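Tokenise the fold.
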Amino acid sequence: MKNNSSLFLNKTAGTLLLLLFFVSMRSVAQYTLRIELGTLPSVHLNDSVFVAGNFNNWQPGKAGYHFSSENNKLVVEIKNLPPDIYEFKFTRGGWKNVEAAIDGADVGNKIVKLISDSSIKYNIAAWKDDFAPVPKTHTASEQVQIIDTAFFMPQLSRSRRIWIYLPAGYEKNKKKYPVLYMHDGQNLFDDYTSAYGEWGVDESLDSLIKKGKPACIVVGIDNGPKRFNEYNPYEFREFGKGEGDLYLEFLVKTLKPFIDRQYRTMPSKENTIIAGSSMGGLISFYAMLQYPDVFGKAGIFSPAFWTAPPIKTVTNSLGKELNGKLFFYMGELEGGTYIKDMQEVQEILGERSSTMIYSVIDPESSHNEQAWRKWFAEFYTWIMANGFNNVIKLNE
């Protein structure tokens, strides 16, 4: 590696050696995870029960992952799994009828560290759809507004709700501000509109700004029914044709010029940030590669690089154009495969660019809004400060 990125190798040498050993194990070892169900709720006993997890891309009713009767027991066997950490839940074919606690509350993911053939038994206390939905309340702060409920995206011939966070005091001063563009807008500010909990971006920024951290404007773009297409520049077998290039063209040629005209912004690349999680992490990273003169900083949380096989080749060819700041996060509970994908991209960047990198692998966290909320303040503090390379793996 060259430039400051040499720090990346030095601080992670032990981690990389362990990872190489783990990867070599993956190439020769394949295990079977056998799951048996014990106690079940007394309702819906004739419905099929499925397991959905990071071994089947969290598809809640995927064929081949349903429980079958075996000697009066409900059993499913998942074969040919490499050693890894697996998370899963039980459903009756969809996320609306997922398992729940006895009082209807959400339950966390089951977690198994698979290092040999394993057989585990679980009980299901209740099903989510047998309880009345808990009314949600609006939690967005007064700094959050909706620009438009149907902002037209000409590149994609569809409309989308757009949110904006304006720092306290914006209306009373004449300051200009950096702008942070974030995907999955309905999950950023308001619990009422979020599917699985919100990031708390507004509360986090309110607190950080009061403590003296630099302020910025945040623009949130809602996702839509074609989220997996819009956030992927490439065709993927399970989602179809990618629309990522058109989506980024909308951000760069339609939305950003509008924001720069209507609000007091600092439009330079050094003051234009992009961030998102999962597929949003993928498209944020791709935006840095494709528009290095527009976006100078990015937050790449749990990037779904597995849905974009060409991304490493593209990073190798376009990475030399990058000289900004990239914050990477991955939860260790998401699995070694996804960590490996992210680290390989970082390695390429270390070789090809002078990009500053902050990389986090959190051993206690996973792939969800709670984890991304946990790390948002650290991301923002680093991305807005004078940069340095940093790599941390919290259990070392």
Observations:
- The first helix runs from residue 6 to 28.
- The longest strand covers residues 144-153.
- The chain has a mean pLDDT of 90.
- The chain has two domains: 30-130, 136-393.
